[in-house]
Amino acid sequence: MPESPEVDSLGGFLREHLTGRRISAIDLEEARALKTRARPLSELHGHAVTGVRRFGKHLSIDTDGPTLLVSFGRAGWARWRDDATDAEPTGPDTPPVIARVGFDGGAELAVTDAGDWLSLGLHVVDDPAEVSSVAKLGPDPASDAFTRADLDAVVTGRRKQLKALLQEQETLSGIGNAYSDEILYAARLSPVAHASTLDEEERAQLFAAIRDVLGGAFEARRDVPPAELKAAKVAAMAVHGRTGEPCPEGHDAVRDVPGSKGAAQYCAACQTGGVPLPE
């Protein structure tokens, strides 16, 4: 799943390459992806791009007319070609194209979805806040405006496991499965601990980990080409996706979070007092 550091990097790339360009062609290859059925993608045709903004894990491509909001969902992404006549990547691991947007000068942006079920969504709107998943977003923990008080406000009293809480977009926007694992490892907190049980010191650890992990990821992904972002993210993980490998501190082997079917990881020595979580 793309998360805020990768989506932000993609947004920066598109901002640089799209601003000022006019949309010359629209091709929707998977009709289910369009969520605003009353407003077809053809509304964007002929309009010039004025900017690109990130909202959590969503990107808006703003024009001098409507806005195209792309919700990447579980496995959505984007592929850029400077010239749409260039050969496209092929192979069994190449995700299917959901829609193509052509621009003057011959460039093309293709949005893709690699999931077993379609999770990417496209919206033609006047304001991204018209989309409920954007309107309901919680504070952005990567923002300079995010404070310890903001974290306390969404954590204190919540009877919800930390792993799930960090991924709840209405609580904190932009964090997904991978970075929630990384944040909890950095904070030395159990993924299944309830937020309401955290004391003052543990809340401070969580806040510092959120800022450090996300801040480092934003910096590291900046200027990485879109096609290389997934590999860069995977390579940077300390525990996520590293089942059986030693944790970076060398204290224990990384384990799967019970019930996650191998999709989430933790270190018992660093996060649960040396006692593995019960299966």
From TrEMBL:
- Quick check: keyword GTP-binding in the entry? no
Q: Which GO molecular function annotations are given, in alphabetical order? A: 8-oxo-7,8-dihydroguanine DNA N-glycosylase activity; damaged DNA binding; DNA-(apurinic or apyrimidinic site) endonuclease activity; lyase activity; zinc ion binding
Q: Which residues form the Formamidopyrimidine-DNA glycosylase catalytic domain?
A: 2-118
List UniProt keywords, sorted A-Z.
Answer: DNA damage, DNA repair, DNA-binding, Glycosidase, Hydrolase, Lyase, Multifunctional enzyme
Coiled-coil region list: none
Q: Which InterPro entries match?
A: FPG_cat, FPG_N, H2TH_FPG, Ribosomal_uS13-like_H2TH
Catalyzed reactions? Hydrolysis of DNA containing ring-opened 7-methylguanine residues, releasing 2,6-diamino-4-hydroxy-5-(N-methyl)formamidopyrimidine
Gene3D superfamilies xrefs: 1.10.8.50, MutM-like, N-terminal (3.20.190.10)
One family from Pfam that matches here is: H2TH
Q: Name one GO biological process term.
A: base-excision repair
What domain of life is recorded for the organism? Answer: Bacteria
Record-stated family: Belongs to the FPG family.
Q: What is this protein called?
A: DNA-(Apurinic or apyrimidinic site) lyase /formamidopyrimidine-DNA glycosylase
Taxonomic lineage of the native organism: Bacteria, Bacillati, Actinomycetota, Actinomycetes, Micrococcales
